[in-house]
């Protein structure tokens, strides 16, 4: 990180225009029109400063369109958090240890790999077929079912090797269904 220059936009925002141009020259290929790009960045910063004085936090709620955007963004991120994915992602090795899985870290790596494969599948499905709403809603239902089954299995026979194997399988199925359906789509909804 020591060798990478500061962001050109940040430098220009700090009043260091020449440093911003120098940073752009480092980032862009030879022959790129760096001066005009730096001027565009400076103009955008000036427009933002002008708008900043007249925009407040409550503007997110005054206009019906902005209110809807704010509501949808907050609900989408909250829904993603409510799916329980952060528990599996953050505590999977600990969870597998509690379930007496033989190699908790190895199974965590398998789970992460399957999640990555599912994210790639999500990208292919959404680009080829679309249907974001169907994927999102069905994914949430499937994730909920897998979490319910996981809770029931662990509640009925905690600490056995068989339960551990079942929990690894259910966690893999959960992460696959979460990543193929919900994971990426929530962030798309928030920025649209």
Which descriptors would you attach to this protein?
192 residues, mainly alpha, Growth Hormone, Chain: A, 2 domains, 80% helix, 0% strand
Task: Give a written overview of the molecule.
The chain has 192 residues and is mainly alpha-helical. The protein folds into two domains: 8-52; 59-191, Growth Hormone, Chain: A (Up-down Bundle), CATH 1.20.1250. Helices cover 80% and strands 0% of the residues. It has helices at 8-13, 17-27, 34-52, 59-62, 64-82, 85-98, 104-129, 132-156, 161-181, 183-191. Helix 6 (85-98) packs antiparallel against helix 7 (104-129). The longest helix is centred in the middle third of the chain and has 26 residues, at 104-129. The two termini are 31 Å apart.
